[in-house]
Write a structure and sequence with these properties.
The protein is built from 11 helices and 5 strands; from the N terminus they run H-H-H-H-H-H-H-E-H-H-E-E-H-E-H-E. It is α+β, with helices and mostly antiparallel strands. It has 3 domains: 3-75, no CATH class; 84-185; 197-343, Reverse transcriptase/Diguanylate cyclase domain (Alpha-Beta Plaits, 2-Layer Sandwich), CATH 3.30.70.270. The protein has a 5-stranded mixed beta sheet with strand order 2-3-1-4-5, with helices on both faces. The chain starts with a helix and ends in a 10-residue tail after the last strand.
Amino acid sequence: MSVARAVRAANASDSTRRLYERIGDFLFDQRLEPDPANFTFAYHLLADPDGPLARAVHALTDGGVRLTQRDIETLGVDSKPNHDVNVKERAEGLVARTQMQVEGFADMVTAMRAETADFGRNLAASAEAISRSAEIHEEDGVALDEVARITATMLARVQSAEEQLESATREASDLREKLEEARDNARRDPLTQLPNRRAFEEAFANKTRNRGPMFIAVCDVDHFKSVNDRFGHAVGDRVLKAIAEALSQSCVGQLVTRYGGEEFAILFSGATLERAQETLESARVFVQTKRYKLRDSDEPLGEITFSAGLTPVAEGEMHQTAFHRADRLLYQAKSAGRNCIQVGTAPTRPARR
């Protein structure tokens, strides 16, 4: 090994060791367990100190606040190998590619049908002209009859091809509709039929490009575990569906999603913070005043409520950062006694150094 190569290797080794030590210091300072998920999170954070994740962590820990395990999960770094998510993403990619191929095939078949129809019309006109000509020129009738027979056979084959192309067109159209439905299902929660977390993140990205004011609300059903424990998961599912319906009815025009478990996220756009708060408060009162009963016995479930955190989204802010701020406000609402809404303000952007 040359001296220069040895020096580069030593420098690389020193750099790797320093990064390893910094990761350990970070986990120790934040009082996080040194498990693979947290280690990977720290690696992504420290390996790119000026990246979006580092900026989000800085905004959260400004003032000496320590990160929690929930903070790391909310920031959305792929720190754990998630086979189900990877399979789902690959499947969605396959569906998208297949849909493009089907659309291309459908366009090709449509063009072929148009060309075949034109050819069939011309062939039919030719056959009719030959037949008339045979009647006029009886001496050439045998030859013209043979041409007419061949032409009629070709015309029958063209008509058969048209029918097959028409059938292929219908099949391609049906398949395209099913693929579109599959792509929609990938972004929809099967229980509540609300858009899911993926749909929320995509909508956030799209609306961010429009640069209009946005607000995020995170809602969580109060004491939901006790509902499941007392009445079973089937009743718990009915409660989630009822909450989903109440939020959708109260927040018409806004994106209401089931973010996961008993947690719902709402993306407000085209509204003021005051209007978003009023809308969310109306939904909270609607849920609280509704009387929930068991379907079989009419036994009351008791009062069902939710708590929420609402925050503006700062310009250029990552959705993880804004969501995390709303999530912290949600837990302040839980600490304040539940069945209430905590409203925050957007952070001021730090000056560039």
